[in-house]
Amino acid sequence: MGRKILLELSETQREELEEGYRNGRGHTFRQRCRMVLLKFQGLPGKEISPIVGIKSQNQINRWVKRYQDCYAELGLESLRNEPGQGRKTILDPEQDEDTLREAVKSERQRLSQAKRLVEEQTGKTFHLKTLKRFLKDLSADISASDAL
User: Fold this and answer.
1) Most Cβ neighbours (<10 Å): which of 19, 32, 46, 106?
2) What is the pTM of this model?
3) How confident is the model at residue 91, as a pLDDT?
4) Do 30 and 21 contact (CB within 8 A), yes or no?
5) CB neighbours (10 Å) of residue 92?
6) In the prediction, which pLDDT does 135 show?
7) Where are the domains of the chain?
8) Per-residue confidence (pLDDT) for residue 82, from 0 to 100
9) pLDDT value at position 94?
10) What 8-state DSSP symbol labels residue 5?
11) What pLDDT is attached to residue 145?
12) d(Cα 76, Cα 71) in Å, to the nearest integer?
C-alpha cells in the first residue's frame, strides 16, 4: 500500500475549487476540481476514482500533485490542459491558404477534385471534411477581418 497524500487547503483555495467544480467550463476541469476537493476531505484514491469516473488512481494523484506544485504560480489554472495538447492541424493557414484558394477556384463545383489537387501540390493527405472545416474557418476569418 502506498503512502497517503495529505492535502492542506486554505479557505480561499477550497472556495475556488468549489466554484470551479460548480461553475467551471469543461467537464474535465470540473472533474479535476472535484478530485482535489475529495482528496482534501481525506478520501483515498480508491474511493475517489469511482466517484469521478476515473479508473486510474495514479491519474488522480498526478492531478492533485500538479495542483499542489503549481498552485502558487498558476492558481486554479493548474487544473486545466495546457495549450497545444492534442493533434496538430494538417492544413496550415499560412502555408496552404493560397494553394487551397486556387484549387477551390478551379474546381468550385467539385470539392473532392479540389481536395485531390491540393493533396498533389502539398503532398499532404487529409479527409474531405478536413478541407471543408478549413474552408469554413478561413471564411469566418475573412468575415471577421472585413467587419473591422
Assistant:
1) 32
2) 0.59
3) 86
4) yes
5) 12
6) 86
7) 11-79, 93-147
8) 78
9) 85
10) P
11) 54
12) 7
- Joined together, the cell numbers standing for residue 103 give 484549387
137 Cβ neighbours under 8 A, 6+ residues apart? 93
Look-up of cell digits 486545466: 80
Coil, strand or helix at 75: helix
Residue type, 138: L
CA 96 to chain centroid, in Å, comes to 24
CA dist., res. 7 & res. 58, Å (int): 16
The three cell numbers of residue 104 are 477551390
Helix boundaries (H) for the chain: 11-23, 27-40, 45-52, 57-74, 93-106, 111-122, 128-147
C-alpha cell at 85: 495538447
**Residue appearing with cell numbers 482534501:** 40
Q: What's the average pLDDT block by block, 10 residues per block, for the chain (148 residues)?
A: 68 90 91 92 89 89 89 86 80 86 87 92 92 84 55
